[in-house]
Amino acid sequence: MFFKRNRIIFVLLLLALGVAALWSLAARSADTREEKLKSHVTLYVGEPLLSKGGTVIVGSVPIPEEEWRVLDGLNLADADDGNAKRRQLGPQDRLFGAYVSGPASYVEMYYPEGGTFGFNLVPGPKIENPARLSTERILVGSGGWMDRSTGERHVWPDVSVIHVLGSTADKGNSRLVRVMQANILNTGPDKEGYAGVLVYSPSLAQLKEGTFGDYK
Q1: Is 216 helix (H, G, I), strand (E, B) or coil?
Q2: What gap in Å lies between CA 110 and CA 104, rounded to an integer?
Q3: Which H/E stretch holds residue 97?
């Protein structure tokens, strides 16, 4: 009787452990599915940024998944069949593409809440014999800016400052345009909307105005 009761207890214990393991596996599977939902942006670098160098600042912004799924507009990655990032994304992920070419660009990219994001820079596909692209991530953090004309706040929980090496590139300038981004973005730079991406491209005059003449 004693051994029979112990066998019953042992079987019940095994069943309980099995149920717990199944719940744990299901939870991990759910987490994995969430982690796989990703937004990736390929930034196509044009001239003069490619040869002279400059700065690309990427602010990543989470938005509701239902909004992210219906983001539309011009997507330069659609025509880039050779984009190596495409093979690294899952069937529910999204690959976007935008163009940067000036001395400094502010890129606002969107990804699904609870998901992940990434970006890379490559030479523009239409450039013949492009200069070698060399970049360095020099600052990371959070940030944003407020449009003083409307009061609209742009909150960037994740910000990366990418220094693009080139013949006239200066890391001091790259740090400066990060620190003074609110002033620069309030000078009225050109703004180009893409699927999943918004690119602000201040002119050299606007960079100087926004940094009180300190931009070299």
Answers
A1: coil
A2: 20
A3: strand 94-100
Q: 3-class DSSP state for residue 113?
A: coil
> How many CB atoms within 10 Å of residue 96?
24
Q: pTM for the complete prediction?
A: 0.83
Cis amide leading into 48 (omega within 30): yes
Residue ranges of alpha helices (H) inside the chain are 2-36, 49-52, 65-69, 171-179, 181-185, 204-210
Radius of gyration of the chain, Cα coordinates, nearest whole angstrom = 24
Look over the chain and give the mean of its residue pLDDT values, rounded to a whole number: 89
44, 100 contact by CB (below 8 A): yes
In what side-by-side order are the strands of the sheet with 116-123? Answer: 94-100, 38-45, 116-123
Cβ(143)–Cβ(26) under 8 Å? no
**Those residues with Cβ within 8 angstroms of residue 33's Cβ, 6 or more apart along the chain or in another chain:** none
3-state secondary structure 150-168: CCCEEEEEEEEEEEECCCC
Write the pLDDT tens digit of every residue in 70-119.
999 999 999 999 999 999 999 999 999 999 999 999 999 999 999 999 99
Nearest Cα neighbor of 113 from 75, 64, 172 is 64
**Rounded Cα gap, residues 25 and 154, in angstroms:** 39
**SS3 state at 179:** helix
Q: Which two tokens stand for residue 136?
A: 């360095």
Structural tokens at position 56: 């690309």
Q: From CA 97, how far away is CA 77, in angstroms rounded?
A: 4
